[in-house]
């Protein structure tokens, strides 16, 4: 594990962008799984400016690693919609390079990725409860590949605050499990803010256990973790 502690969110974004762009500049097909949320906002602003409308990045393909589908509406899920808004559309990524994960293809996603050489990079954030992707404490199993996670109990209560209408809350989430994520050639984990200081310490230096799903990430042979000083304040 390579741990980089930087001053603030802006520096985290800059350092992370160089890592991502280094992978994207390879002269062969590149498969990247980007994340959503607030953590990568600065990263995407930088990358959009660097890659927009540049044909020499047409070999880069994008795969969302989790999805929360709408139960009633016949539209794309929340994750791919957010990725389009945050990054894919501003960067003018061609549709043929975007590979949404959804209820129709999650069972074949691992095989599909293997056929195209696997993921070269997964960009990750860390939740305050230690989750990554949709691998939440109490639901994630380290052995899982790409799976459906029933939306029940505490997880259902969490997503009641995510969907504007309760009727749209799905019966299950879709996510690449820990085993599928660890199969990627490279991981980039970004963590920012004092609110994540305690879980960041647990994930990076505590016991590796399913109660802290993010703790398994540090076992990857090529993971770079970029943490700002606030998130690293308890190290």
TrEMBL record:
Superkingdom per UniProt: Bacteria
The terms under GO molecular function for this entry are: glucosamine-6-phosphate deaminase activity
Q: Which InterPro entries match?
A: Glc/Gal-6P_isomerase, GlcN6P_deaminase-like, Glucosamine6P_isomerase_CS, NagB/RpiA_transferase-like
Q: Name one Pfam family in it.
A: Glucosamine_iso
Q: Where is the Glucosamine/galactosamine-6-phosphate isomerase domain?
A: 23-218
Alphabetically, which GO biological process terms does the record hold? carbohydrate metabolic process; N-acetylglucosamine metabolic process
- PANTHER family reported for this sequence: GLUCOSAMINE-6-PHOSPHATE DEAMINASE-LIKE PROTEIN BT_0258-RELATED, GLUCOSAMINE-6-PHOSPHATE ISOMERASE
Task: State the name under which the record lists this protein.
Answer: 6-phosphogluconolactonase
- From what organism does this protein derive? Enterococcus rivorum
